[in-house]
Amino acid sequence: MEVTKTLHELLTIWSEVRRRIVAALSLTTDIPSHPFVLSQHVGSETEAGLKKPRGMLQDQLGRIDSLTEKTKALNSLVFNLANLHDSRAAIEEARAANAAATSLQRITSLTFVYLPITLAAVSTKLAFIEIEQLRKAKVPY
Hints:
The chain is mainly alpha-helical. It is built from 3 helices and no strands.
């Protein structure tokens, strides 16, 4: 869970860094057309001087986009691993439940056989006890 939280925080950071790089790139594009630069008649020199920094910013923008995608992929991987772990735990729990069900099935089968026999034996025994009591009481039946 901690890894997912950290990766999520990284996504926020990458987003903020990208926003700032885009702002700097926009600034390097706007500087040569600024009225002050135009009034000094150095627009073309400024444009040439900003070409390399603009290229570097565009390169950094590509890297940030790549890092964002990699971070999203890692976040997805961690999430999938957590799901896999949960699935394994669920499978183990299902196996344990199946074992318990098999045991209960055996008990049910034994009860199905022995309960009627026990009932018949008890009924017969009670009938004999009742007949004995009637004999002792000397009551005609």
